Amino acid sequence: MSNNSSIYGMLSSVFERAIVFSKSDDKRSITELCDALLSGRGEATGTKIAHALFNKYETLSHEDKQEFFLHLNENLDVSPDEAEAAAADYAKNMSAEALKNLRKICEPKRLELLRRLNSAPGGTERLVRMREDLLGMLNDIGRLKRTDVDFEYLFSSWFNRGFLVLRPIDWTTPAHILEKVISYEAVHEISSWDDLRRRLLPADRRCYAFFHPAMPDEPLIFVEIALTNEIARSVQKVLAEGRDEIEAEEATAAIFYSISNCQKGLQGVSFGNFLIKQVASDLAYDLPNLKTFVTLSPVPAFTRWLAKASKEEPDGKAHEALGAVLGIEDGEGLERITSLQGSLTELLAHYFLNEKRPDGLPFDPVARFHLGNGASLLQINWAGDVSAKGLKQSAGLMVNYHYNLKDVEANHEAYAQDRVVVAHKSVKALADKARLG
Amino acid sequence: MSNNSSIYGMLSSVFERAIVFSKSDDKRSITELCDALLSGRGEATGTKIAHALFNKYETLSHEDKQEFFLHLNENLDVSPDEAEAAAADYAKNMSAEALKNLRKICEPKRLELLRRLNSAPGGTERLVRMREDLLGMLNDIGRLKRTDVDFEYLFSSWFNRGFLVLRPIDWTTPAHILEKVISYEAVHEISSWDDLRRRLLPADRRCYAFFHPAMPDEPLIFVEIALTNEIARSVQKVLAEGRDEIEAEEATAAIFYSISNCQKGLQGVSFGNFLIKQVASDLAYDLPNLKTFVTLSPVPAFTRWLAKASKEEPDGKAHEALGAVLGIEDGEGLERITSLQGSLTELLAHYFLNEKRPDGLPFDPVARFHLGNGASLLQINWAGDVSAKGLKQSAGLMVNYHYNLKDVEANHEAYAQDRVVVAHKSVKALADKARLG
Amino acid sequence: MSNNSSIYGMLSSVFERAIVFSKSDDKRSITELCDALLSGRGEATGTKIAHALFNKYETLSHEDKQEFFLHLNENLDVSPDEAEAAAADYAKNMSAEALKNLRKICEPKRLELLRRLNSAPGGTERLVRMREDLLGMLNDIGRLKRTDVDFEYLFSSWFNRGFLVLRPIDWTTPAHILEKVISYEAVHEISSWDDLRRRLLPADRRCYAFFHPAMPDEPLIFVEIALTNEIARSVQKVLAEGRDEIEAEEATAAIFYSISNCQKGLQGVSFGNFLIKQVASDLAYDLPNLKTFVTLSPVPAFTRWLAKASKEEPDGKAHEALGAVLGIEDGEGLERITSLQGSLTELLAHYFLNEKRPDGLPFDPVARFHLGNGASLLQINWAGDVSAKGLKQSAGLMVNYHYNLKDVEANHEAYAQDRVVVAHKSVKALADKARLG
Amino acid sequence: MSNNSSIYGMLSSVFERAIVFSKSDDKRSITELCDALLSGRGEATGTKIAHALFNKYETLSHEDKQEFFLHLNENLDVSPDEAEAAAADYAKNMSAEALKNLRKICEPKRLELLRRLNSAPGGTERLVRMREDLLGMLNDIGRLKRTDVDFEYLFSSWFNRGFLVLRPIDWTTPAHILEKVISYEAVHEISSWDDLRRRLLPADRRCYAFFHPAMPDEPLIFVEIALTNEIARSVQKVLAEGRDEIEAEEATAAIFYSISNCQKGLQGVSFGNFLIKQVASDLAYDLPNLKTFVTLSPVPAFTRWLAKASKEEPDGKAHEALGAVLGIEDGEGLERITSLQGSLTELLAHYFLNEKRPDGLPFDPVARFHLGNGASLLQINWAGDVSAKGLKQSAGLMVNYHYNLKDVEANHEAYAQDRVVVAHKSVKALADKARLG
Fold it and tell me: pTM, whole model, 2 decimals?
């Protein structure tokens, strides 16, 4: 970018400019650069070598990148023999040195390589992009998961909640950030800048994102919120053009209607829990009239489950429902399945409360996220999302998860220890009525 | 502080304000809070528990703090048996899960506790202060070094050079930062705000510090620089009131005359190497006339070594020199030892080039730092620091280390691999003339 | 806007928040509020009254606004008798008091009213909007020009170049500013956010705007620049999608291809002269390879002049040319007039050099602006703007005005004193060949 | 200053850097530069000429500066003949042109010169410094007051309250601003940086200043405030080291104990009224427990009046009191006059309520300021300021003026129209008891 006058720019580290501006002309191979960076020499001129290594890496072909990761995986790994010896040594004398040695031995050398790479200009973001590449290879080359374990471990430590910065995203946010929000929105697509404007500018809308100071131009996760007078049941109504706006001070409910992770390379590092709770807490502080904090959430695996249940019981309700849902044609709304409203709603309640994975957790991934955070399942909304995607994934149904800050801890514990899905009695009643057969 | 209008404030994370503003009234003991923070419950409400734990800790007596650290040390340690088993398991199947498990097992549980504590408001700084306390106990309770190993490991990862922000410190810097610079200056005391102003305001002075975004009001390390027309040989001349100032653009040399670490709790995490090189590189870019980058450094262990040599050879030159140096009385300058200029200078050259620790590295700590960074020993300056401290520690001698960015890598390697002290031939010539006996 | 996290926000004054947040419920009429604001009482609580007056004004109908302006115009005017007396008094004793009194008497009371209105929150912008209303009434009610004289006088003083802030506009600029750039672009329409991005993001594009600190979210004027390797002759090539970009450092020419005033209410206050010269000077400093600073400008009144000339000489070249130009149909390009390239180019040269208004200045308004700034007319470009607007206004022709910073002063003087149109000899040669008859 | 990393720096205009960095080598005399700046040429290259003129001016001797001002005064003045003609013309046709011409004619040409000077880098501040010089000459050369009338007029318009920025001054404020606060404090001297820190850092202290965006490093006026639980009666208690601090939220009263104008060159432009009211209003909004807003003010002319009264009535109470006050020796406190507490307090009440200037306004300048703002006189404090200055000026007495935001308007009107000194009945009672004879 030609000029950076943004405040976000002030967060970023200043790097040796001679390095940033010089084109890297290091002739060494990428494995030689790995060696150099890990050697003592790396201490003296690490920033420069790290920059050269990234420059090299970023121009590699897919195959050569695989080679690079295999080098990390096989040649910079833990030695099991040394690990056993170090453990034995620690067992014997329990000294600080032995402990230090134990960890050093049990930590693959590639981890230190990654840490040193971080000293390059833009190093953190470049490491995140590097892991994106790696994740794309795991299906083909399963053993690279060992290397991915180290990326995940490192990022979990570096992207510790204590280092994250919460920022409002609004219509005064720099355009290069907003264009990323448009691109990263994963739940309800933002179709244009005008659409974005409608989500950010009105007095009854809010959006917040977490940033990391070393990646100041890249949101990590963001949440979009509607301030309303009642619990929203339909995302189309929430996003409708020409809807009536209200003053923020008048609102009694905050609807978290979209939450999107932005960085594939940070997979496995969890931000959403912290984000929702902090935003809820901040909003409650700023707008004392807000009493209710709920999501308006999709049920992304519902029809997938219907299909599964349908196979298991070919004459059951699930089969019937699935058939009707799949029969909806492009451009149609809910009409075709209106008569099934009762049974679909009951099936959904059943799906939430009774259908579990082998580990005992709910089948639905969004449910696992919110229940794991300590939210409860509040209600089921017919015609909550009548978009093509909404109809296809969840028969147009949406749900509200309730973040009651006072119950969050107890809910979480019940869920984490006993797999209890905390749900409102009305949802339970629906589930009781559900009949699969 | 009542109002924070500073730009530094923008770096810091925003935290759940309900937490920050509420007084913590958690009734649990500190070990119960440790358990809670490490439990699943800690995931749901970690920020709050972490805040309560710090609040508790910060009011503990010295003895209770020791108890707390002993709890971390003994009850949240690695289990050697589990470690051996995990190593064996990894040897057997080399899977990602086994590797993940190996690291988890070989990492004391207290490390995860520290990471979770970081989510509290001001967590990073509070952890640094906590380690300060711990460091003060290591002499008395040696086994706590095991816990310190974890602090050092964590801080080394978190204060990675890639996360540090370089900032100029000048006369437009907020006062609460400047007052810390005054207080942290460790080499040549800053006696007053006027003294500080003389070091920051003139066109031929510079000061830079590294900050971490999670501790935006706390410099980690800073360096003070004089821009000059010749290599400075006397710190009193550099700091003299009423000296002639020059325009920055005219200067040909940058003299790094003071470098101070600020945070005791970050002991063992090295910043100086990076700081000097980045600042040298930046200055070279901004001021193309600058050709020479040198330090003006004390020799803090010289008279200590004289005393040692004196004991070993009671009739030697070192003994004579030591006697003269020790005989200097308060308020006297160098007069009493002027006649010894030749032999003291030679002894110092010898001290640098030939006196080694058992590990083969130079006796002088400042020499180890700069030579380890790849600098070379350029020259020895008689009457370089005639303050009481300068006379007492180093017989008034100072030296210049030379950072020639082109030689830094080779120098570093020669030093790191072969313990070579790279020195100018004039220093070598002096050392050759030195006679201890 | 719900949240303002923008740096621009920091420029704005902080106002008594009790005032900003309270709804104004002042029951007085707008003329009573005028009286109150001008009275002594206005000194005690001026900000509040000013806010109430604006609130009242902003809800008035068009007719009531006219009434308000007529009140200012007739009842808060200069008294000619008092003016004559004050002039006589000053002639007599030439004292400071007499001078002060003379100015006070010769200054309409409404001017003081406007100054006091400025103390309201957002006062400056609200005054600019108020004048926009007034300007729209001058055609109907000519005598209101007296009141407009005062607005123009005041704004000329307040928007003095010494108070303007130059800011780069780029892709990191807040969206609410960028959306104004889209809306205010007056020369070559910005059709979408993607179009804007193409003008701001590439390394060889620049945009700068003047802001006033009291209206930090409102650009006053902005200029768009292309950095190129040769003098651009076609605006469509400058703006083409998929064109080859170059590095800014490689560019040798800066093409000012669009300059737009943003605030109708600031009519008569000139910023463009300052803007172009400062930007040229700044670019020359940052990018030493830049040697040539030229505009790529439309000729907005060319076909209008052709029509005039055509009427005067119905059988002449102008008539023929005009007919061809008007005959171009929607969707056609230049084809229909290709054969006239020679004669149109010559007519244009003639139009610039020989066609004058009664005051002796060139007929073309853009020419008057740039020549008045001290630029010279460099060359005429066939097919410079083949858009419908370009064809219609100027037969697709564009010109380059040259800002040679060394000649600017002399050019300006020749133009200002002797009405000399400084032009390149090639343009003069064309004009010499031109034949109207 | 070498580096400017301060947020204040972002307020300032960016100027043509070629101008700022080039040394001005214009050979023209200052009057030639005046002519050039006022000529058409000045429009083309005004910024450059303005910079050259300031550079020239700033190196002139006192005598040459006088010559310069006399040139402005005599040669760039209003022509009374033209003024009379313009007034007559306006009387005749009342057109916009005639009005415009009238003002132009009645405005000295030097005013346009000052406006054009403002376009130089740092122009606004340089003009303020220029007027400082001028003010120093008015005693010697009275007729220069005509030129000063224009400076005052221009600054009153440019430093309109709508352009001022209120900023908190606290311990995070840049040092170069704080050092000006130390230097500009005019009421209760700030003796050191530690003293400053005690006034800024504690939770129960506040300080605010007005800035102008074109002079971002120069406070215009600032006020220091103590948040307390009762109306403070002694400035020494307010400023005592080691006093008990309270939380801001607990405070019920805000004591404005010092207010200082900073810029001599802005004499006659009033900021204090706005500052106090805005700060009171803001504090009331932030800290809802604050109910009382009062000053703790000196009585700077009390002993001067005692001397006057003493002369008029050599045997009266005033004479006795004055003698005792003057008899206080260095280092003594109030002891010597304790017995006079009653009569001094009564005399002071009388002084406020009954002693007037010929224009009917109170004798005391501080009283005129606060009463003119609409404050009322609340109480008289014995031993309010026992510093040497306090004893000498006001016999150690201080008073509280009360800013009751609800009464301010009515108080102001009573004072402005009828010269009523609004005072608490207890003060009136004291005045009634006062006996001069």
Answer: 0.91
Residues of chain D neighbouring B171 (CB-CB closer than 8 A): 1, 174-176
SS (H, E, C) chain A: CCCCCCHHHHHCCCCCHHHHHCCCCCCCCHHHHHHHHHCHHHHHHHHHHHHHHHHHHHCCCHHHHHHHHHHHHHHCCCCHHHHHHHHHHHHHHCCHHHHHHHHHHCCCHHHHHHHHHCCCCCHHHHHHHHHHHHHCCCCCCHHHHHHHHHHHHHHHHHCCHHHCEEEECCCCCEHHHHHHHHHHCCCCCCCCHHHHHHHHCCCCEEEEEEECCCCCCCCCEEEEEEEECCCCCCHHHHCCCCCCCCCHHHCCEEEEEEEEECCHHHCCCCCHHHHHHHHHHHHHHHCCCCCEEEECECCCCHHHHHHHHHHHCCCCHHHHHHHHHHHCCCCCCCHHHHHHHHHHHHHHHHHHHHCECCCCCECCHHHHHHHHHCCEEEEEECCCCCCHHHHHHHCCCEEEEECCCCCHHHHHHHHHHHCCCCECHHHHHHHHHCCCC
Residues across chain B: 437
CB contact at 8 A, C289 and C272: no
> How far from the centroid of its chain's Cα atoms is residue B140's Cα?
24
Cβ neighbours, 10 Å, residue B201 = 17
Mean pLDDT of successive 10-residue stretches along chain D, which has 437 residues: 31 43 73 89 74 95 97 95 92 92 94 95 96 97 96 96 94 97 94 96 96 95 96 95 93 96 93 88 92 96 91 85 82 80 93 90 92 93 92 93 89 87 94 81
- Whether the predicted pLDDT of B12 surpasses 50: no
- Please name which of D293, D323, D296 lies closest in space to residue D307, comparing C-alpha atoms: D323
Q: List, as one string, the DSSP characters of B67-112.
A: HHHHHHHHHSS--HHHHHHHHHHHHHH--HHHHHHHHHHTS-HHHH
CB contact under 8 A, D6 and B172: yes
Whether the Cβ atoms of residue C328 and residue C389 lie closer than 8 Å to each other: no
Q: Which of B7, B15, B96 sits opposite A145 (nearest CB)?
A: B96
Decide: D271 and D261 in contact? Cβ < 8 Å.
yes
Q: Are A83 and A101 in contact (CB under 8 A)?
A: no
Clarify whether D370 is annotated catalytic.
yes
Contact B304/B325 with Cβ under 8 angstroms? no
Q: Quote the CA–CA distance of B41 and B51 in Å, as a whole number.
A: 15
Report the residue of A15, A16, A159 to disrupt the B interface, i.e. the one with the largest count of B CBs within 10 Å.
Answer: A16
Fill in the DSSP letter of residue C362: B
B149 near A CB under 8 A: yes
Answer yes or no: is pLDDT of A4 > 70: no
**When comparing pLDDT for C321 and C99, which is higher?**
C99
Q: Please answer yes or no on whether A413 and B373 come within 8 Å at the CB atom.
A: no
Give the rounded distance of the alpha carbon of C144 from its chain centre.
22
- A172 → closest Cβ in C168, C172, C175: C175
How many angstroms separate the Cα of C48 from the Cα of each of A102, C119, C126, C130, C225? 71, 9, 15, 18, 44
Per-residue CA distances from A129 to A122, A140, A157, A179, B159 (Å): 11, 19, 17, 18, 21
In this structure, are residues C72 and C147 in contact, taking their beta carbons and an 8 Å threshold? yes
C85's enclosing H/E stretch is helix C80-93
Residue B85 structure tokens = 């088993």
ipTM: 0.89
Please, what is the average pLDDT of chain A? 89
User: Chain C window 198-217: which residues touch D at a Cβ cutoff of 8 Å?
Assistant: 213-214
Distance CA B34, CA B147 (A): 15
For helices A302-312 and A317-327, give the axis angle rounded to 10 degrees.
130
Is the confidence at residue A374, as pLDDT, over 80? Answer: yes
